[in-house]
Amino acid sequence: MPTTPKSIAFIGLGAMGAPMAENLVKRQFRVTGFDMRASAREALVTAGGHDAGSAMDAAAGAEALVLMVVNAAQARSVLFEAGALAALAPGAVVMLMATCPPGEVEAIAAEVERSGRRFVDSPVSGGVVGARAATLTIMVGAPDETFALARPVLEAMGDKVFHVGQKAGQGAVVKTVNQLLCGVHIAAAAEALSLAEKAGVDGRLLFEIMGGSAASSWMLKDRGPRMHEPDPAVTSAVDIFVKDLGIVLDAGRAARTALPLAAAAHQMFLATSGLGHGGRDDSQVVRAYRALNAKPANDA
Fold first, then answer.
1. Are 239 and 168 in contact (CB under 8 A)?
2. Gap between the Cα atoms of 232 and 158, Å rounded
3. In a designed cystine with 141, which of 53, 171, 290, 294 is the match (CB 3.0 to 4.6 A)?
4. Using CA atoms in the order 210, 133, 248, 220, what is the torsion angle rounded to 10 degrees?
């Protein structure tokens, strides 16, 4: 069986990708990164990694390729249009860690495998905090042998690595369900806060009470306090849930599964984005509820 990859091309050095790549460097992998932003590449070099002028250059001869891009379209562009797949070493492992529709992941995997390389469907959860601390949850769909090969690389970025199935797309399904629950929980917390505020109840007191009751959720306790801030730091943007809940609904249609709560939550994130707040922290979905219920967004 092939040995664990040592040379890794890392594409996508964003808010999560940059610390993930740095954690690989800390675990003694040779990491060559590419991002459109020169500052992101320079930060990787400062951390002990290497930079490249293009995705193809980063992938040249690498034993593994980590894709921490925005969506499936970007993954396809990097792999097939920019030439990264062809530049990899024979038998290299491609790890797609972005949130993508399961069907798209299956299609990309088929093309990768036709080239003689291996594919690991490995979306992540845990946000920027988890990426920095190497405590991400990683949901993997891949054959046993391929998973065993990739596991040390994945464990350098996350401490909860789950092998959820033998096929590409199965990791994406689990991540899709995760995003369904996260999006609905945030929207539900915002809706509860909106009702309390409209009735004149102090929202901070409400969440203090709810946080210790059976009505609590991780999202309520994490996002709830930020709903009271006028412009909280962005840990995950509203537009991420516009995208991810769209993926959830697409998966529901493909499986002929009704997802009415996900659809309602998607509409509220979409409305928030339409109000011009797509780049704000996802807790700010509360702004759509405040607009709907005639409460000014800055009246927190």
1. no
2. 26
3. 171
4. 10
Using a 10 angstrom Cβ sphere, with 0-12 exposed, 13-18 middle and 19 or more buried, the burial of residue 218 is exposed
User: Would you please indicate which residues are annotated as catalytic (active-site) residues?
Assistant: 175
Closest by alpha carbon to 140, among 118, 169, 177, 110? Answer: 169
Interval 263-281: pLDDT, tens: 999 999 999 999 999 999 9
> How far is Cα 73 from Cα 62, in angstroms, rounded to an integer?
22
pTM score, two decimals?
Answer: 0.89
Q: Which residue has the tokens 């509860």?
A: 192
Residue type, 122: S
- Which two structure tokens, joined as six digits, stand for 19? 């610390």
Q: What are the beta bridge partners of residue 50?
A: 32
Tokens found for residue 225: 């306090």
Residue 30: count of CB within 10 angstroms of its CB: 16
Residues 148-178: pLDDT tens digits?
999 999 999 999 999 999 999 999 999 999 9
To 10 degrees, the CA torsion angle through 160, 233, 279, 76? -30
Cα–Cα distance for residue pair 207/224, rounded to 1 Å: 7
Structure tokens at 18: 């940059």
| Cα gap 90→64, rounded to integer Å | 10
**Listed residue (281, 278, 275, 279) closest to 289, CA to CA:** 275
Does the pLDDT value for residue 46 go beyond 60? Answer: yes
